[in-house]
Every structure is written in C-alpha cells, then in structure tokens.
Amino acid sequence: MTDNSTISRRQILSSHQTGQKIRRIAFEIYEHNFEETGIIIAGIAGEGFAFAKRLAAELTDISPLHVQLVELLFDKNIHHQSPILFDKEVNIENQVVIVADDVLNTGRTLAFALEPFLKVRMKKVQVAVIVDRSHHMFPVHADYVGYSLSTTLTEHVEVVLSNSEEEGVYLK
C-alpha cells in the first residue's frame, strides 16, 4: 500500500542538510549570546519542539551556556487565541529566550507564541526557525533562519525531525 502523503512531496533538504542548518543556527545563537551564562529555548509543540531539542543539544555541545528547554503548548488550529502553557515551571524574567518553530509562514503561530514573554521583563526574546517562507502577515521576523524558501501560498512546507527515517524538509 502506498502512502499518499509521500507521493506529492518533494524533498528540499536531506536529513544531513537539515542537521547542518540546525548546527549553524546553534553557532549563530551562541555568537549573539556568548556573554550570557544561560538561555531558555522555548519550542512550539510538535516539530517546533523537536527543533528546540536539537538546538539545545547542539548548544550544549558547542558552548558553555546553561540551556533550559521548555515546550510551548497551545492549539494552533483554533480561530481564537488559546492559552499558552509551558510544559514545566521556568523563570523567564530577565532571561534570554529563543522561541523555536519549524516553519515561519504568516507569523501567526509565532505571534501567539510570543505572548507570554511580553508580560514580563526580558533581557531578549529571539526567534529561530528552520524554514522561513516569507509570507508574513504578522510583525514577526526570525533572528535565526536555516533556510529561506520562496513558495506560493498554496504550497505547504513540512519539516520532519521526529521521524529519523523521513527526517528532512519537504515541499507539498
């Protein structure tokens, strides 16, 4: 039996290339935050959190930064903003936070994800994405981008990090 989800998708980045992009983003984050003792990486649930875990591992490997990992939990599919929850207690006040997601398309998801960080005094909030599609409708930009990809509005970009057999970036 053939899986229809794989028939119409084209691989843009291989597993190896995706890993290289994530490592490069980790180096960029460290370069911009080398004077810090620690940072918080907040990954948006799903592949965004898988990306955050990989970023945290790379940062731990290449730097002396103390990296805290937190998952941002909210429903991206409802039409009104749902409450944004952290998967564990974390003190974000006066911290550097990197909000991580797999794809930046319109900016809607990231705009919602930034909400809890705007309620307290922060040192810095930055955004990291693997793919930036540049169809921004919200005032959100990524500070760290693995790959910029021009697409049509009808195309779909899928990042797979949680399945090692299919890992990579795909265009549908």
UniProtKB/TrEMBL annotation:
<dbReference type="Pfam" id="PF00156">
    <property type="entry name" value="Pribosyltran"/>
</dbReference>
<keyword id="KW-0808">Transferase</keyword>
<dbReference type="GO" id="GO:0016757">
    <property type="term" value="F:glycosyltransferase activity"/>
</dbReference>
<dbReference type="InterPro" id="IPR029057">
    <property type="entry name" value="PRTase-like"/>
</dbReference>
<keyword id="KW-0328">Glycosyltransferase</keyword>
<dbReference type="InterPro" id="IPR000836">
    <property type="entry name" value="PRTase_dom"/>
</dbReference>
<feature type="domain" description="Phosphoribosyltransferase">
    <location>
        <begin position="10"/>
        <end position="147"/>
    </location>
</feature>
<protein>
    <submittedName>
        <fullName>Phosphoribosyltransferase</fullName>
    </submittedName>
</protein>
<dbReference type="InterPro" id="IPR050137">
    <property type="entry name" value="PyrR_bifunctional"/>
</dbReference>
